[in-house]
Amino acid sequence: PTRMADTRTNFTALQVDEAAEEKVEGRGDGRKVVHKVLLHAFAGSATALVAATFMDGSRFGWHPTMMAAAYAFAMAQGVHLATDATKLPPGNRRLQQLIVHAWTMAAAIGCAGLGAYAIYSNKTLHDKPHFATLHAKVGLATLCMSVVAPLLGVVSFKKLGIYEKLPVAMQAQSKWLHRNAGKITFFLAAGASLLGLKTPSIFKGWVTLVIMGLVLANSAAVAMYVFATPKSEPRE
Predict the structure, then answer these.
(1) 68: which DSSP letter?
(2) Count of Cβ atoms closer than 10 Å to residue 35 Cβ
(3) Dihedral angle at the C-alpha atoms of 79, 234, 150, 36, nearest 10 degrees?
(4) pLDDT digits 0-9 by tens, 31-59
């Protein structure tokens, strides 16, 4: 009887522990949903407001619009997708999530390329020097990292077969480099956009301040989501 009572006590304690754990997980899931909604809202609002403010039909107008679409929206979504994928166990669902992440980042690079072409050709057209400002220099560094990070992603993505050909000592390192190059690219882009928005020639008062606030909020939301998400190993 004593043994049976102990067993019942242990079982009840286990049920209580599981219920408490589920309650905590439920709260965590709720916070994550709110966090995702805010992240998408900041990214979408920043991009839409930039387009509405600067897309005036001029060649220059394509630069901030495409860069906002590339980094504030598409890359933010890509980072979000990759971060969510790290929580999934290896398998088809995780693989599909990483494929969507890759295509989203490809779209970001395409938009960034159009934005870079717009400003480069506009400066050439008006006989202005290239990469003369801090904004331009940080923007160029961002564009270079936008190429480096995906290339590292191609190398470290097991599905493509390159990863397995790397020396064992470099395999984990390639994944670490890809993840951190991606983070650096996103936050460099945020810095470049803030530097560009405060340029006197395009500053439009409170509208620009609102855009800058959205860029900061979007960056903070991405940072909180990325650094607060536990990772699952091994990755695809």
Answers:
(1) I
(2) 16
(3) -10
(4) 778 878 888 999 999 999 999 999 999 99
